[in-house]
Structure formats: C-alpha cells, structure tokens
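Model it.
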Amino acid sequence: MKKSVLLTGATGAVGKEVLNQLIQNKDIRLFVLCRSSATNKKFLKKYAENVHVIFGDLKLLDCEAINQHSFDVVIHLAAIIPKRPRENEDLIHKVNAEGTRTLIRCIEKSSPQAFFMYSSSIAVYGDRLDSPMITVHDELPIHEEDAYAKSKVQAEHYLKNSKLNWTIFRLSAIMGVNNHKMSGLMFYMPLETRMEIATPEDAGRAFVNGLEYPDRLSGKIFNLGGGEACRTTYRSFLENNFKIRGLGALNFPGKTFAEKNYHCGDFADGDELEKIILFRRQTLADYYKMNVASVSKPVKLLTHFFRGPIKYFLRQYSIPLRAHKNDDVELKERFFNSEV
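Modeled.
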C-alpha cells in the first residue's frame, strides 16, 4: 500500500524541494495543506495529477478537512518568517506556535499512528557569538526579543508533549539561489557570527530520507546543517555574495551591522543526523557556484555600475545604524556592545 504523507509549507524554499522529491516516489500518496491564495493555487496547479490539496490556514485551522484522511507521516514546514525580529509578533505566534498545536491536535484525532516531522530552527539557540559550537543539549535562552525563535520553542514544546511519534530537525541557515532577498534583516546579524549553511535541496532531502527511519528518529531532536564543508563567517558569506552580484566590497559605515543578539553558529553534533539519513550532497562551494550561474553578465555589470547607490539604499534599512545615529539608548543596548 502507498504511504500517505501530509506536507505543509510546500511553497517555501525547503517545501518545494520536499514536494519535488516526494512526487518522484510512486509509493507515496501526497497531500499538501496550504492557504487558499491565488499564488498557491497557481503554483500547485502543475502538480494536480500528483498531489491532493487541502486548503486551510494554520492560524484558523479547521480539523474537518484534515480528519477526512489518515496519514502515515506529517512533514510540517509551514511558518511565518519575519523580515525583522519583532515584526508581526501576534501573527507569528498564531501561525507558528498555535497553528502547530492545532495541527498536532488534528493529527492526534485522525492519524494517531502518524510520524510527525517538524522543522524548527537554529534561532532557538539565540546569540552564540561567544560559543559558536552548538549541540541539541544546549540550554535554550528566553526569547523576549525574537518572536520567531520564541514561536519555534513553543511549537517544539507542544509536539514533545503530544501523543504522536515525532522528530524535530533544527535547521541551520538555508541558503539557495535567490531564496533570501537583501533586506533590513541582514543588518541584525553581527559580521563575525559563525554560520553553517544547508541548501534547500539537501534540507528537503533530509525530510524525505527521514521517512524511511522513523524508529531511529522518533522522540529525538537533531541539528540539520551542511556540515564542515558548509561553514563560514557571516562577513565572508556577504563578501562573496556581494562580489558574485557585482556589488563590490562590503564597505558599509561602522554600526551598520549589529554586534550582538542574533543567532547562528556551527552544529557540533550535526553529523548525527547525516549518519542516519545521508542527506548531504552540496557544499558551500556548490552554493556559490549556483549563485554565480544565476547572475547574468548584463545584470552583474549593471549592478556593478550602480553599486554605490544600491548600498546607500540598503543601509537606509539598517535599524542598528539608525539607532546609533539617533542615539536610541534602548536599541543601542540591544544591538551594540558597551563602549569603554
């Protein structure tokens, strides 16, 4: 018999990879839960022959449509990712935390035997500038300033206390081709932050391969990253991407980037998941190659010509720089180290 799988977040960077990899498996009967929007309908139309779509909004989720089916596996990727840490806090809580709790309750009723795979985040570990090597056993900080991280911690709590068989993958920075637009959020991360990326393809493969190992994953939390070959610093990461896109040097004024209170780091125990499901195929070098191939010469030349105005425009979105210029004591305390 075919294995019945429910996927949420199918239109996101990782979700698209999971979707495309799952539909190649003829032994999978795939269901997708997503909002009934014109964009989602257009995207899913091309998968009509391979996917059963259930329309539902996580913040207003009604179990009736879900309870008409029984699922062997749930892959829950859907979440609101804000452009700034304190943006849309109420919506983030309703979707990421309470939406997850409602989905868990729906599955407990309709598919109590289901294996529930949840996509959490490295954000739950908070600022790791001084201790960049991270393990799943590390104590999680209280996230009063980061609604996204707080919502992920809450969602994990709901799942761990559910009646389901579950596993949690805490994802590192997921970096693909054009899946992150330059915005004000880029200035929240200190330049010296250690970061370990994973590509959307590899992250998607982790969830797909994980379907075959519920006994070894159930009841456990894993850090999901690309491993040693995907490690760098945020400064080096930005410098390379600026060169790739024709933006030149990373020459922003002092205080444009925050100096503390963001997340990221390297996963000291990330190989544990790789040993079980063998999902890694791409490295940091592969990521850069893919991005080089995605930028045409005319676009790069045009960007290079206007690099000055573009960087001037970008830094107008730096909240840390604005706080420094306005001498905002509260925000300066949040973003910067004390000046002696």
